Amino acid sequence: MFFQRYAGWLIFLGAFYGLWALLVFGQGLWPLVTEHWPMALSMAIGSYAAGSTPMGGGTVGFPVLVLLFDMPASLGRDFSFAVQSIGMVSASIFIFCRRQPLAWAMLRGALIGSLLATPLGILFFAPLVSELWVKLSFAVIWGGFGILHLYRLSEITGHDHLGDPRCPADFRVGLVFGAVAGFSAVSVTGVGIDMVIYAALVLLSRVDLKVAIPTSVVIMAFSSLVGVAVKSISGDWQPGVLGNWLAAAPVVALGAPLGVFVVGLIGRRPTLLVVALLCVVQFVWACYTEWATLGMSGMAMALLAVLACLGGFEVLRMLGIRRVRNRAQGAELAAGEGTVAAAS
């Protein structure tokens, strides 16, 4: 039964590990793999977070490369694309095999938005953003996301709405948010669209985490594949991506699906809390390491940017509360009309 249900995922794993072994041992690249073993160790944690939270594996890979190893931010972005094209895709196939529910209306819109906007962002917007602002953009986006979960976690984990797969409003939200996030966040940092769609689902549509998180995994996997395609066609990969990818890819291919499976046993709240704390820590660390460059004015701008992110999240939350109220009123009205019709 297991092999029949997960046949698609097992075929993907077999094909990937076969091609990886052919590349590494056929081309004599094993020394390159062992040279980058710290990245494989880091992504063992990152891939679990990728499968169990609305945060791609690049959320760990980016700060490890950029903040810890002091590599260029553009390398962190390209590595995020490369490693998520294995880990997040593996987790997505695993999700499909498990037949987990997804927020299809918003997901369809986000897929179209990302497909159209992410290539434009990579080709025309990302080259205009300096290395410093790439690093700070990542720190601000995920710092705000972490803070949101620290004070709204109980509310977010309390939703039980499974979403409407044919909701035109959710499709439009997914289309717009997917395009904006693909153009501005994914193209610059390699991550972000998963967080944006997840935030729209849990704050605006008030969707259950067991639907919102798998949906965020699928959209990030798709956007990563788009990023890999654009980077490969344009030939614009940063040096150093291959070695880190060869070391980390075999780990994330299993680690991300493992996160999907394990979080179903222990619950999402503990994992979300730990990852939220890590998001806040990486923001503080980024500001600390760039203090000499930022100064007081730059630090103030970074903090204001985090507050702006939190303000945007709160606006989504208020709109979501209004949607729930309107939905409840509509249900009461329909029930009242049904009672009157039955009485007559």
UniProtKB/TrEMBL annotation:
<keyword id="KW-1133">Transmembrane helix</keyword>
<feature type="transmembrane region" description="Helical">
    <location>
        <begin position="297"/>
        <end position="316"/>
    </location>
</feature>
<dbReference type="Pfam" id="PF01925">
    <property type="entry name" value="TauE"/>
</dbReference>
<feature type="transmembrane region" description="Helical">
    <location>
        <begin position="242"/>
        <end position="265"/>
    </location>
</feature>
<keyword id="KW-0812">Transmembrane</keyword>
<keyword id="KW-1003">Cell membrane</keyword>
<protein>
    <recommendedName>
        <fullName>Probable membrane transporter protein</fullName>
    </recommendedName>
</protein>
<feature type="transmembrane region" description="Helical">
    <location>
        <begin position="45"/>
        <end position="67"/>
    </location>
</feature>
<feature type="transmembrane region" description="Helical">
    <location>
        <begin position="132"/>
        <end position="151"/>
    </location>
</feature>
<feature type="transmembrane region" description="Helical">
    <location>
        <begin position="79"/>
        <end position="96"/>
    </location>
</feature>
<feature type="transmembrane region" description="Helical">
    <location>
        <begin position="211"/>
        <end position="230"/>
    </location>
</feature>
<dbReference type="InterPro" id="IPR002781">
    <property type="entry name" value="TM_pro_TauE-like"/>
</dbReference>
<feature type="transmembrane region" description="Helical">
    <location>
        <begin position="7"/>
        <end position="25"/>
    </location>
</feature>
<feature type="transmembrane region" description="Helical">
    <location>
        <begin position="102"/>
        <end position="125"/>
    </location>
</feature>
<comment type="similarity">
    <text>Belongs to the 4-toluene sulfonate uptake permease (TSUP) (TC 2.A.102) family.</text>
</comment>
<feature type="transmembrane region" description="Helical">
    <location>
        <begin position="171"/>
        <end position="204"/>
    </location>
</feature>
<feature type="transmembrane region" description="Helical">
    <location>
        <begin position="272"/>
        <end position="291"/>
    </location>
</feature>
<keyword id="KW-0472">Membrane</keyword>
